[in-house]
Amino acid sequence: MAQVTSGTVYTNTLANTKFYLSWSRASYDVSLNESTINWTAGIIISNGQYWLSNAVKITSIYINGTKVSSGGTYSNIYGPTTGTALISGTTKIEHNDDGTKTFSASISGWLWETGSPSGSGTFELVPIPRYATSVQSLNSKTETTISMKWSSDNTIDYVWYSTDWGTTWKAVGSVNATSGSYTISTQSKDASKLTANTTYNVITRVRRKDSQLTTNSEKLSVTTYDYPHVTKVGTTDLTIG
To answer: How large is the average pLDDT for residues 158-178?
Structure first.
């Protein structure tokens, strides 16, 4: 099924007449993860058919399983017409957690001494941008610095890091990429320098460029190297790192 931002449902044709329901996405809200849908319902008549007083009725309109209108009764509609709008409205559709959404739309009507045409369709909306992935790994380390690599499945425009399990954050800065690296020399909670032989609990936070939503990576404990020290007095045996 193709992803779309608009569509139309038609009923079956009776007495050269059918109803239609057209919809289009007016906007979407990233934070609420929902789309605003404008819809219009009307009638199409061919071959000079006409309907007089109280002869045409839209009985119900459903979008995404919700009855958005009970319709109304209409008079003095003459054909031919490629589409006469009779009623319109606006509704909101909540998307799935990943931003995708497939929904149904249907319309039912009534024609005097003729019958009750109806029709429905299913549509897949263009997804709303959601969260990017954030994957981090250790690139290198020294006694007082930690170098991290990060990557994501979408374009990122800003990166932060935390050295205390996400309690506080420090900005790495603006980027425009799906991967990169950065070096930590101070703790995220303040300006204190990293110290040797100390464990820091690192998280990388990324912000997806199109949705502006942030995602944290899994936590990673990194211990800086110890300074060189003597292992046996009177010898040259040293342990480095």
So the answer is: 98
